[in-house]
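Figure S7 source data.
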Amino acid sequence: MTKTVYIKTVGCQMNVLDSEMVIADLKRHGYQVVDTPDTADLLLYNTCSIREQAEEKTYSALGKLRDTKDRHPEKKIGVLGCMAQKDQEVIFRRAPFVDMVVGPGQLHALPQLITNIDSGEGRQMAVSLGRTEGKQAVVARSHETFDPLRDPSMRPTPFQAYLRIQIGCDKFCTYCVVPNTRGPEQGRSPVEILSEARILAEQGCREITLLGQTVNSYRHRGEDGDTDLAALLEQLHEIDGIERLKFVTSYPKDMTERLLTTVRDLPKCSPYLHVPAQSGSDAVLKRMKRGYTVSQYMEMFERIESILPEAAVSSDFIVGFCGETDEDFQKSVDLIERCRFKNSFIFQYSVRGGTKAAERLEDDVPREVKAQRNNELLAVQNRVAKEGNKKLRGTTVQVLVEGPSKKAGKADEDASIVQMTGRTHCDRIVVFDGNRRQAGQLLDVHVDEVTSHTLIGRVRTVELVSIGL
Ligand code: 5AD
Ligand code: SF4
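Tokens for the predicted iron/sulfur cluster complex:
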């Protein structure tokens, strides 16, 4: 009999990709994916540890499974991902009915762990080594992933895919748990990356987003020399069928002129860069151990502007980091005003066990102040984003159509014209009235109106005729 699996994924793009791999693997072991936990034999939660809130949500979702497990002890529950690596036995303590705890570097072990449970070995835990639990190479090996398994059905759209080029992180920003949960930085081999990209192209993928925690620091040392991100992009650019190449997330210090000119010179590379600043205050950046000052960030930003004047740049900010004064915060406001990011993800600082900030710095900004700074920074960001988008009014943008927008909803399932959504080359979201068959196409859309997050347009008449609307 076919077994069924339900998977709930939270967190970053790495997790979305990991879930795709897990499902590809389980399908090869006879599993079928279902949309609800009720009908599943195996319930998987792919988790995130970046902020406390993400963890608490998962623990509360797990808490609700206690009854399910009482009623159906044969169902298996697995906690995967960063929280599994970080909390390990704590998960079994807080949720004793969980059967498996599997870190992000051990996901390939999942089918074996299920077999172990079936043969009566009890609950299972597979996690990678901690940063100090062995020699660097051994620790790194324990974090390896099994990327070549791909499953288009698990992607948000079949013509867009993530491709991991780098595992882990060695930057050790003081607030961040990632160097612990995902282990040492390792560049995957270009041979593996290229063969995976070719598989994706054969599966009909038109846009690939390369993933790494500090993706522009990518480096692979091979027998025939070093490969950096620029060299890798040049090779990926040759693959027929791939139309767009993006990469996230970039580290400000490693945004070299060589990389920027490569992006400029390769038409498939999107003029879109996600380069988190985190703060606009030197004192805060220093406590975060980000490795750059505001003026160095600005130098990098100006380098982007001069080489790629059309590029859209986005950022992340943390508000309320240890010791952040009103003046420090104001400097983050100023940085957004100066850089006019396309968008910024803004987060309230959350203490993470095992980080340097948790050990050495006091989380002294009150919760209400964090919330207030968050709102204020978001308002500034939204204003500059809208002003930036207004410049695109009246222009024509090329859109890779993703599918019906959320607004199109279920009610419109039979309608011939629905609101469709897609993205420009520089990652701006576009909505327009169109047809479901346009999903996966590259269309020229005329921009009529804008908000801070969206361009609202209409397909140029020529295309409307050619697709028979
Ligand atoms: N608290 C709040 N935000 C954090 N981030 C990383 N660690 C923390 C933390 N402890 C944010 C950073 C990072 C993004 C992915 O999450 O802005 O760029
Ligand atoms: Fe975390 Fe800093 Fe590494 Fe990004 S660069 S994953 S914020 S430690």
